[in-house]
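WARN retry 2 of 3 for item q-0093 after timeout on previous attempt; input resubmitted unchanged.
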Amino acid sequence: MSPLPSLRRKDGSAALAAEEITSRAEALARALASGGARLEPGPAARAREVLGKVSERSALVGGRTVVALAGATGSGKSSLFNALAGADVATVGLRRPTTSTPTAAVWGDEPAGELLDWLSVGARHQVPTSGDADLDGLVLVDLPDFDSREEANREEARRVLELVDVFVWVTDPQKYADSVLHDEYVRVLHEYGAVTLVVLNQVDRLPRGGQEQVTADLTRLLERDGLDRHEVIATSTVTGAGIDELRTHLERAVEHADAVRHRLAADLRTAAEGLGDSVADTDAGVSDRAREELVDALCRSAGVPIVVDAVARDYRLESWARTGWPFTRWVRAFRPAPLKRLRLDKNDTAAPDITEQDMRAVLGRSSIPPPAPAARAAVDLAARRIGTTAGEGLPTRWADAVADAARPADHDLADDLDQAVLATSLRAGKPLWWPVFGTLQVVFALAAVVGLVWLFVIGAAAWLQLPEIPTFDVGPFATPFLLLVGGLLAGLLLAALARWLARIGSRRRAAVVRGRLRASIGRVADERVVEPVHQVLSEHADTRADLRHVLR
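OK item q-0093 returned
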């Protein structure tokens, strides 16, 4: 995904529609919600203030345009305010600062009380309707000096500047290069070019040719501040120079009735740009390799190798019990069942009243040995690696959130792993060769028994001097002898073949069960580590997408 787009908009661009303003405000609200504490506190607080302002300003009914005259002490903005209002509304004097509270002049009959209450401007002057009708809808506010020695005056100027629709920066030949104006206001608010006017007042004090020089230098400073291609209006309340030009610009702002939308759109873009450093330029993710390493570590921690070995041994023992030499099968009864010792034998029917499943339901755990410290450390390392790789390239707060999401509680994780092993089927269908070999073993055993009994009867008859019992000879060997020896040898050879097949089958059964257990452990890894990390990364992506929507 490409980086966040630039906030810059060329002067003259059309104002956004009210619906688009609402859409971008909603996108910014979603970005704040999805970003949460992962966003930088300062820009996030500023964005919330902007959302509050957008909501409050949009709720105000009417088409009023609020213009603020802002300037340094002695710039003559109050005199300029009076000249535009056509009356001595603002106090003009030699004592500094003269303006301590904002004063508003209102053009037109449309009620402006609710708007001025929202601006907290108490001093209000209604310009007579006989005045310039082209300014109907204008609310002109004379602000306290933004460089006043009184802190309260400076704060009041900043407060109102946050709310008005159009800035008119008023300066004079003495303070036009003042650092307060350029560094703290024009440069900071240079993105608001569509709602900014710059006035060089008191040009009557300049000698011949001085107005052009100062205007050119002021234009250069404004361009350095980022206010490109911006016209400077030269005025004088003494000679009346430039007043009509300034009035024309104000009439144009009122006529278009889009200054408020320009200002709100710029507020939203500025807030979103301030949050740009809180998100990365690209999205991140969990690599397959890191996930596989985590699953490997969890398998070792859950005792999967122990369980797989028990499954293989259990398969071999059951195979030998079903296909081994019948005369030695009873020895198996003295060998412990590997899966039963781990409480994983789901086919135990020795106790029909209390089954192994009932015991596990009560105990809730298997008897798999707890993981060794090295295995636990491997899990922690693999989880940290997921957090590190997934959070690579993200801002610190997001990277920390990803790392926290990748570290589950050890106790809960151990229980989940054990339950995953318990819930995994460790059995499979019986091999087809088992009943075949089992039947043959019975046949060979019966043949050996028949031969043995036959020989015993022959011997007993000879000892008791009874008539000779007939036999059928095959070459030099009697039939009873062939039955006995043949049955025993065939049974032993078949048992040896069965053991070889059992070892092959046990490896295959172990591979199948290993795959099942790995899949079960993988689901635990996804649920406890990968999915929480993905959730944080998804919230980061949503935040980026919403900020892109605001800045488009």
